[in-house]
Structure formats: C-alpha cells, structure tokens
Amino acid sequence: MIRLEGVGKRYGRGDFVLHDVDLDVEPGTVVGILGTNGSGKSTLLRIMAGVSHATTGTVTGSPRIGYLPDRFPAGQRMGARAYLRHMGRIRGLTDLSAIDPLLERLALVGGPTAPLRTLSKGNAQKVGLAQAVLVRPDLLILDEPWSGLDVATHAILGELVDETRARGASVVFTDHRPQVVHDHADVVHLMAAGRLTAEDSEPTTRIVLRGHGTDWADEPGVRHAVAEGAQVVLTVEAGSADAVLLRALKDGWSVREVAPCSR
Ligand SMILES: Nc1ncnc2c1ncn2[C@@H]1O[C@H](COP(=O)(O)OP(=O)(O)OP(=O)(O)O)[C@@H](O)[C@H]1O
Predict the structure, then answer these.
(1) E-strand stretches of 26-169
(2) ipTM confidence score
(3) Closest atom, ligand 1, to C-alpha of 43
(4) Is pTM, for the whole model, over 0.90?
(5) Residue whose CA is closest, atom 2 of ligand 1?
(6) Which of 41-55, 61-75, 121-135, 190-204 has the lowest mean pLDDT?
(7) Distance CA 12, CA 16 (A)
C-alpha cells in the first residue's frame, strides 16, 4: 500500500524530528501509532499524506489518500455540505450522494448548512472526518481522530475504520492513549523522540465476557481489560486466550465474543 524506508525529517535547519523511520502498511490493515505529544506522529502522517516531504529516505506507493489532519481547517464560511461537495469535486467524485447520509450518521450539530467557522471543535472534526472518508480512500490517514469526539461519535468512527478495513483499504491513525490504539489497531507502532518501533508482532484476541468478580488486568496474557457496562472487553495475547477462557468459565463468566484483533 505504502512503504517508508529510512525516512527522516527536519524543519528548516532545526534538529531532525524524525529519524530513520521504516514502515510498511499492508492492504486491509489498521496501523496505530502511539506516542506522546511532540514525538513526531503528525510529522510522519503529513509525510504519508504527501503534504510534507521527507528530508531523507523514500516513500513508495501512491494510494488514493483520505487525510484528517491534526488541526482541521474549519474557518470557512461555507456549510458542511457545500464544503464536502467542493472537496469531493476537487478529488474527482461525480456521485456526491454519500455526503448527506454521512453527515447524518455523524450527527453533525447545526446541520449541513451551518457555517464551518461556527462549529465546535468536535463538530468541525466530524466534517474533517467526513472529507477524509468520502473519497473511499485506499489509505485513510487519521491524526488523533478520537480526540474531541463525543462517545456516540467514537462508535461511528470505529465503524468507519472497520468498514475501511473490510473493503481492503488501510488505515493509519495516531493517538497518545494506549487503550485507544490497542482497541482499534491491528498493528501498533510506538513513536518516541522521532523514532518508530513495532510494539511487538504477537497477535491478540478480543474476548468479551459478561459477569463479575475477576480482576482481569492482573491475569497473565491480558494486555487490556476495559469495562463496558456489565461486560468486560479483554485484549489477550493469542497464546493465552485458551487459558483466559478457561479461567473465565471456571469463575462463572459468560463468553459473549471471541475474535482475533491483531493480524
Ligand atoms: N512546521 C514545523 N516547524 C518546525 N518544527 C515543527 C513543525 N511541525 C512540528 N515541528 C516539531 O516537530 C516535532 C514533532 O512534532 P509533531 O507535531 O510531529 O509531533 P506529534 O507527535 O504529532 O505531537 P502532538 O501529539 O502534540 O500533536 C516537535 O518538536 C515540533 O515542535
């Protein structure tokens, strides 16, 4: 899909903010990049999106890209619908019928005609997200997409990411919260001080349980345990999935879902 080899970046004559980054994004894969503020995540995504150039190294591949930048420019007077039509035409779309259902799905407050500059941060982010997915990209690049969105829209964003993967396209997104990255990514990379490393390649299994009484966070092989109402969603190293399921059944939990979440 896209391959970065030895990519480095410095702004002007400053120090390098990216060092020797190698990254291969496979089709149908969701790549999460986890890193703290200022570690270089946005710089890397801008290079992948083609809006910034690498100082060193190479970027190979020319997928159709949808890009949600870290600061979506929402200062325009035009409304969301008009803006998305405009962006769609620029990107060569002739059928613009997907715009209204997409805005409806994202529950844009103020409706499709509210001027973009009057939208809240979260609602502007929704328009940014809409312009990125509208073009049905081969590579969807999302810079901190979960930040600023309300809980209902979190779920929609998760669906949009899943749908993108399901049609064989790829997603690369950033976040600074490990849980968000692990919940949504097939492959996780860590960004620290401009250096990118693969977290590890061991596949994980998503296990959803209903019940109570076990402290799953301390169970061997459990990477994350997230309570969701009466259920708990576990991200488990694949090699430990059987043991975790056995423990769950012994402890009286009901198994609701078991699925691979890392490929
Ligand atoms: N246009 C620019 N000119 C000069 N330096 C820049 C520019 N953009 C980013 N930097 C610097 O590059 C480094 C990496 O910034 P970047 O925005 O890529 O990090 P980030 O991981 O996305 O951070 P955040 O999570 O805060 O968005 C920082 O030291 C930042 O100050």
Answers:
(1) 30-35, 56-60, 65-68, 139-142
(2) 0.95
(3) 18
(4) no
(5) 11
(6) 190-204
(7) 10
**Could you tell me the sign of the dihedral formed by the alpha carbons of 203, 6, 140, 70, in that order?**
positive
Q: What is the DSSP string of 21-57?
A: EEEEE-TT-EEEEEE-TTSSHHHHHHHHHTSS--SEE
- Res. 121 pLDDT band, cuts 50 70 90: confident
**Residue 145 DSSP symbol:** T
Q: Where are the beta strands (DSSP E) in the chain?
A: 2-10, 16-25, 30-35, 56-60, 65-68, 139-142, 170-175, 187-192, 195-198, 204-210, 222-228, 231-237, 254-260
Residue 194 contacts residue 51 (beta carbons within 8 Å): no
What tens digit of pLDDT does each residue of 1-31 get?
899 999 999 999 999 999 999 999 999 999 9
Residue with the nearest Cα to atom 22 of ligand 1?
42
* Ligand 1 center–CA 203 separation, angstroms: 31
The domains of the chain, with CATH numbers, are 2-198 (3.40.50.300), 204-260 (no CATH)
What mean pLDDT do residues 176-198 have? 89
Question: What residues are paired with 195 via a beta bridge?
Answer: 192
